[in-house]
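Two proteins follow. First one:
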Amino acid sequence: MLCAFLNLAQMPKDGVLWRGWLRFGGRHRIELSLHVLFVVTAVAVTYVLAAGFLPRVFPGWDPAVYWQVAVTVTLTDSLAGLLHELGHAAAALARGRQVYRITLYGLAAAGYRSGGPGRPRDRFAIALAGPISHLLVASALLCTWTLLPPGNQPLRVATGLPALSNLAVGLLNLVPIAPLDGSRVARALIDAVLRV
């Protein structure tokens, strides 16, 4: 269940445009926030896709179709970003951690949960949950793409581009370089092997 309030007339100093709450697992309530950078990034990505990338790569479509595909790609990738953070949240909650808030900023997001070192296997699972969510989204979109009619190029592009971007983000996030999730996965594995 999602409850929300919107206050555009007076944006808080923290830059959050929207706050809502998500009931997770019946007992847990997580605050969801959209930062102003999320809106700016979504508009910019949609514009770049609709006015630049798509017309150059796929010439001949009706102009409105470029915008429809661009909005679909942007919304799909934004939802995938939220699912990434919800993956971390679900893994954290399953391991007894508390999750307080998820804030979406443009191309990034941040989850705020109870700290503490925790067991390496818990840290491993929590860190891995985000990239796995992207890989699952990519798999679902790719499976859907294979079922679409070959003659409907805009629909295939609206499904295929997010499939590729989610595959790329999921794999990139596994690279063991901070601040990527892969660095947290690697640290948890090292701690487990060294029993630190």
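Second one, unrelated to the first:
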Amino acid sequence: MKLFVYSCNIMKDLAAQRGLKYTRADGAVLEGYELGFKKPSLRQANKGYPSLEEKEGARVEGVLYDVDEATLESIDNYEGVPERSKRIPVKVRLVNDGTEEECETHYALVWKEGLRPSDLYIRRLLSGVETYGLSDEYAEFLKKFDTVKNEPRR
């Protein structure tokens, strides 16, 4: 199964810690969507997790994984399928050779305006940008988000 990921699962070490198994991981670009942080955290009132919003001319960069069913189920659970998000079909362009591939990605069903990502979350995304050769422009876009301090888990 091909899955485009734009969340902190683009951070190679974190994906490994979570037991995500994949046979392929390539930098990829999703056109026509914009990254936001409108998916509410269940633990911190003002913190948001990544969400996609359709927007002409916008793009989201991430990683295209080939995953097995067990890994897909694990990621679905982590993303809150079916209560907080769902998978939708999309087409991405690979960074390394420009080819387009059909896949699925997660789309938030629960939104709230005014949320911000944590500083830790942005650092994790930037790590993935570097690992998978995503664009400097995308890294600069991520750095512009106003962040909140990550509160420790209780």
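SUMMARY FIELD: The mean pLDDT is 93. The longest helix spans residues 119-131.
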